[in-house]
Amino acid sequence: MPAKRILYFTASQVGAYSWKSGVLTQDALFENSEEAPPAFGEYVADAPKALYDLLVDIVEEDFHQESIPFLRSGDRRSMLNLKLAQRYRDTSLAMTLSLGYQSGPRREESILFASLTNTQSLQPWLEALVGREARIAGVYSVPLLAPALAKRLGFPQKRFLLISLQQAGIRQSFVDNGQIRFSRLSQIYGDDMAERAGAMAAETSRLHQYLINMRMMPRDSAALDVIVLAPDEAQSDFQRACVSTEELNYHIVTAGAAAKMTGLKSAPAGMLAERLFLNLLAHSPPSRQFAADDYRRFFNIWRMRVATHATSAAVFSICVLLALPRLMDYYAVRDMIGDNQAQERRLNTQYTHLQAKFQKTPTSTENLKALIKNYIVLEKQSVSIDKMFVELSKALAVVPQIEIERIEWEISGAPRRATPGAKPPPSPPPAAADPAAKSAGAPVFEIVQLSGKVNAAQASDLRGITQLVNQFVLALRARPGVEVSSTQLPFDLNAEKSISGDIGAVRETEVPRFTIIFSKRVDS
User: Fold this and answer.
1) What is the DSSP letter of 423?
2) Smallest Cα–Cα separation from 140: which of 265, 15, 21, 280?
3) Is the separation of the CB atoms in 448 and 409 below 8 Å?
4) What pLDDT does residue 357 have?
């Protein structure tokens, strides 16, 4: 947080103060002249990043209450700016304060127009601050702090009169419904506190009558609470002078007790009630102030920068909070990976120790792995002949005249076998012949070459023998998955050959034989 500096303007002098944690320190004191002295510029240049609050306590101020129609947004701002321009010649140190809405058929808003009328005495000091690019937080007056000070002192009343004794004089601030309505600074001469207390009581009675005549408070209202901030050494003088009546109810509070209640730890010696207002301004400045935006330009730039940094920090914090679970997951996974790697190293070490105790084999581990792989492939490709016997038996049951003499059975990756007597196909390359080189999904076929003869038929009955052989072939083909690839009948039916013999003669010759080649897929 930048350093806090407060400038206290009176008609005769300008006091420069530093504030930190309830400790008020006087840095310098300048005469209030038409031009700011060079020493003031050096004082401002000494702390270029400090925040400046200006508290003005002068007679030249104006408070005016007026009602405006119910408006919003831009129309309301335009109306308020027009009213300020109509009432005050210089609006650089002017402000408006809403006093609430009036009840009735016309919903009007009560506005308090306030201004520091003698701007010429303040402009040299403000220009010196702007010229040094000082951050002017705002220009305030003592009446703006009166409601907050009374609340700090434990007076929650909505309507009261706060009277304080400062270096500039006696300040009388009338607060109604928690808002400042009227204030006046009076000069009371004399060093005797008893005389000052008596003069202040007389001024309070006249101000009370003035408020009633100006209709700021009703005539039949209850007694007005008057809070008097008296010096510690003059408490008894003020208690004798300020006697409560049916119209005024006095509450005497010493400046020392008020300092404790407002959190002021220490202040320069010789200060009166202004120390309370300076401490309150440094700790809790009001939301409304007099300075125009031209004077507060560098303060607004700094505030925007702070807001940008705060927003960036908030966004960064949110991102960190969102990333925190991911970060925890990352560390958890990393620890898990480390544990797994340690376990892997431990198991590898154990395996190495166990492997060293194994009996030496006559061959290498790679050869054993290849042998086991070939064995597994051969085991998967091994097929029993019993299923083929079942298919053959069911076909023989259809044609019982068929007598089987020879069966040649083999396993092959090709579904067909060469016809007997034909030239055998070229042998496959070594890689294809190796069962381990075959894919696990390649088809495997059972191939059977069947040789037999036909009983219960004459050798010369060519038609009957051929018919029985064809019936047997049809019976084989009727079996699921069986495919007959070649059939060699007992007779050569080629047109180039001739058939001769005695018609009707019975010959005692050997019964002709036939050959059939069929296949079946193993998984069918």
Assistant:
1) P
2) 280
3) yes
4) 83
Q: How far is CA 159 from CA 173, 177, 180, in A?
A: 11, 6, 10
Which has the closest alpha carbon to 142: 57, 60, 59? 57
Vertex 417: Cα angle to 414 and 422 (nearest 5): 135
Mean pLDDT for the chain overall:
85
Write the pLDDT tens digit of every residue in 376-418. 877 766 677 888 888 889 888 888 888 888 998 888 777 765 5
Contacts of 414 (CB under 8 A, 6+ apart): 445, 447
According to DSSP, the β-strands at 224-230 and 248-254 are parallel
Three-state DSSP class for residue 387:
helix
Dist CA 414 CA 483 (whole Å): 12
Number of neighbours of residue 314 by Cβ within 10 angstroms: 10
Segments of the chain scoring below 50 in pLDDT: 422-440, 495, 497, 501-503, 505-507
- The encoded tokens of residue 86 equal 């109509």
Q: Is 29 helix (H, G, I), strand (E, B) or coil?
A: strand
Q: Give the H or E element holding residue 164.
A: strand 159-166
Token pair for residue 313?
């920090």
